[in-house]
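ok trying again, last paste got cut off:
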Amino acid sequence: MSLTRSSGPEQRWQEVLRRVAIALKGRDVGVCEADARGRMHLLAASSAGDLGSVAVDEVEATLRELGELRATGPSPRLWVAGRLKPQHWCVTPVCSALPQPPPAGVERRSPERLTLELGGVCIGLIEAPGREATASGAAGPQALLASIAEQVPALLWTTDAALRVTSRSGSGPKSLELLPSRVVGASLLEQYDRGELPAESVDVHRQALAGKSVSYQMRLADRYYDARVKPLRNDAGAIVGVVGLAVDVSDRERALVQARRSQRELEDFVEHTPVGMRWTGPDGTILRANQAELEMLGYRSEEYVGKNVAAFHVDPEVAADTLRRLRAGEALPNVETRLRRRDGSICYGLVSASARFDGGEFVHARCLTRDITERKVAELALAQFKAMVESAEDAVVGKTVDGIITSWNPAATRLYGYAAEEVIGKPITLLAPPDRVDQVRGILERVQRGERGEREETTRVRKDGTHVEVALAVSPILDPHGQVIGATSIAHDITERKRVEQQLLHAALHDALTDLPNRAYLVERVTQAQARGRRDPDYRFAVLFIDSDKFKAVNDNLGHAAGDRLLTEFAGRLRTCVRPGDVVARLGGDEFAVLLEDIVGPADAEHAARRIQDALAAPVSFEGREIVATASVGVALSRPGYTESQDLLHDADLAMYHAKQQGGARFRVFDVIMRESAQARASMEADLRNALERQELRLVFHPIVELHTGRVHGFEALLRWHHPQRGVIPPLEFVPLAEETGLILPIGTWVIAEACRHGRRWEDAFPAAGPLRISVNVSAKQLEREGLVDEVRAALEEAGLAPSRLILEITESMLMKNVDSSTALLQQLRALGVELHMDDFGTGYSSLGQLPHLPIQGIKIHHMFIHRMGGRRTDLEIVRSVVELARTLGLGVIAEGVDTVAQRERLIGLGCEFGQGSLFSEPLEPAAASRFLAVPPGHDALSSQPA
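nice, full thing came through this time. structure:
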């Protein structure tokens, strides 16, 4: 404790000032005196070094500002002053009466203020004139001080070195755990052992005994206390105990708690408000940003805070202008800007900002940003939509629910010919033809019900009166509450499309060459006729299926131009043969059909068929030639059993097929037997497709012998079908079907491979038989196939048979069908090493002039010449000529159908070397063929028995 600046009464105030300073947590306290001029002088202080002239001047200035120092009139002479905060003084006059409580409704005094007031009262009592001493003499003032100390709103106590309480004063809490319930003389250590004191209280007292001054805070129930303990020293400065002070600061703590809560609530509001908030420094650096601001732009706090705000603006000059205006003190409400998000997209923001200044210095700017991207996008979309409507190629027309036109785009002017000012305000029925006005009214009724109209095609009227075909879509316009307030129609000009569609429809339903209706059109008309027949039992109709008998020959021999000429001539003639209501259609190729409607009976259909045949039989002129091409006609009459139009066409086709099988140039009326025959043929075809997999196909071998010696020269492989239900089927019954369906190709490949395999087996088993040859017949389909040469090569290699042992027999008609292509293929086969023979020679198709140029090594004379050789001299001469021709050309000759000894003798006499027929053997199974080969050389084959 410092000495006061003067002696006398001031020394008696030292105990008061010391106690007040302790209650105020060591803050400086002093007593000042005002002289007659109102000037302040320091009389005493708790620390003389801290209350100098400057502080007294500040106290004087504070009192003058408050009007407490008056030049006239009475005013307090002595004042107690304490510095509570920098530049914050608490000053109270010295008086001898206790301070009165504040009036109702006025905030109560703070503990610091009350402590200073009590100190002033204490000093006033000491200074009171005429005060009498108590019976104890000098103890009177001390008793008064003790009494006053008891009223200080704090708890003051002292202990000895053993931590026993030696004194207690003040009006602080009576049950404070810092001290035991029995205060003076009680031991703090004993109370701690009994659990009546916290360890913290004992610990701070021990620290005070060690020479430390310790401040700490305690909470008891709902009250808060600031406590301070320090060493208690004797006159020699030795520590003899502890002096302590505890002040109730509950109001302050509650105020701090409330302040912190308010601060947290404010922080929470800032962080969670849906509006973006940020604070920027004088140079535009972002100092802080709330969560809404970060989420709006997609950045993390460390990526955003600390950066210059201009870096996030699409237009940095907007950021610079905003900062300039804020520095100038301008508040900026609702400034639109564009910000760049973290992902590179653009965000539209509406920024309101203001600046905070301190002493004229720009501290920071506070900015609120609302994300208006959706609004801007909507505005842009609206602008784009308006531009789209204005620039649309389709007419867009707006109207009220009653059909009054409200908007009209340029495309509507181009489509309908009216300018906008000519139609706005007028009814939409202005654009409808008279026969479509009810249609428009119906559309408006649907719009009023809120229905969206389906896109429909209709007709509208232009300003010049011409009609235009449009595709029209009408939609209701709804207000925000879903109420219909109008309609929008979009019309597209489809006039040209309609014209093209008609052309395409005609092309889709008509033949390009003849302009006749095609199959699709005919099927539709037949379907309509059948529907009419179901409604009217008396209605009859017929379908005629027509096919040219020689169209293929005309195409092959005279070319496609001649074929097209023939077809167009047929089309024209067919049109003249029918009634106006009948239908003539081209189904494809040279196939035509006629639908005869509303006939009386079969006689009408037969009469039409004869008329058509007569018309088509007349010659057709082409490039100076006359082409005669008859036709076969099939007729199918309507009857209740038909349900599908295709069934009727199919039966007419079957009837035509039977007419063609009978030689052509005739007509046939369909009957059920034809269908049964076709079904049987279809069944055979289905079975034939599986015959190879089921191993139902087998080979038999017809021996070819030397006529003179009877020695086996080779075998001709012949195909047989062992059907599981029908037994053995000869080739004439199924090979033509295989040819038509293309099944001959896999079958032919199997035959060649199987024949080569057997040839190799016999060659190994009967080496004494000499070079044995295997003949295989090749079909027309195989000759047309490019892979025939590869198939033959593969079969030879797999079987291990020498190519010279294989003979391929080709009919004369097939060879002469296309000499050039046949010759090229035969050259490739010949180069492979196989032999080529012409089968059925003499049937009348060959040209002797072509024979020397064909790469063949032998010919086979048709069996009909051999059979008639003994009865007709002409046939004998034909055989003689063939043998001589072959000898001249160096070709081998094989005679087919040698059935008698006489025939054999004549052939030997003519110089024919080889023959085959029943005289030698019927076709043999492979095992029987092996036994046939086992006949000793030179043994007459006539004595052998066929298997």
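cool. Confidence is low (pLDDT under 50) at residues 1-7, 130-139, 174-182, 940-947. The chain is about 40% helix and 25% strand.
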